[in-house]
Amino acid sequence: MTETQPTDAAADGAGAAPVRRSPVERRILDAALRLFAERGFDGTSVQGIVEAAEVTKGALYHYFDSKDALLYEIYHSLIARQLADLDAVLAEGLPPREAVRRVLTGLILSTAEHIDEAKVFGREMHRLDDVRMHAVRADRRRYHNTFRGLVEQGKRDGSFTTPTPADTVTIVALGMVNQLPRWYRADGPKPAAELAAEVADFILAALD
Questions:
Q1: Cβ-contact 77, 29 below 8 angstroms
Q2: How far is CA 24 from the centre of its chain?
């Protein structure tokens, strides 16, 4: 999930660290994700997560201090992966057109692959406390600004000729991805790779 609106400028340059988890931690998160999806955040108790994960309450609190922390980690695992993919594309030094295509297709594929995480977070993110919400906004702002920078670079070097401001292009492009959890189904009629290619083609055609 990526930001489509600018946030606090103090968040510039922030980003999610790579996620490395123990098997127990992964089991707790998987149980929390399943219960949040089935019952909602408010309808899920810590005890329910403990029972579903088959761990002790002490084990859960060893890794996570609250349900808020579990919800944030569900988001963090997704955005950390997406930011790492973004950095990998940037490191290749590709021309703007190819970079935009690679970023968009990678983002759509990642979101589709982890659609349950995206659904739960999109529905429940307002439950986060102020500190964790600020971290979410920092990650999203970094993604937004980096993608906008690729569009601006392409406009400067003539790769993209659209008069539409780069910020508007970014809002439209990333907004498409943000809507995926509302309608995408892994068992639907269109494979994620085909959808990703079509969206990238559409955005690049608009930039021309």
A1: yes
A2: 24
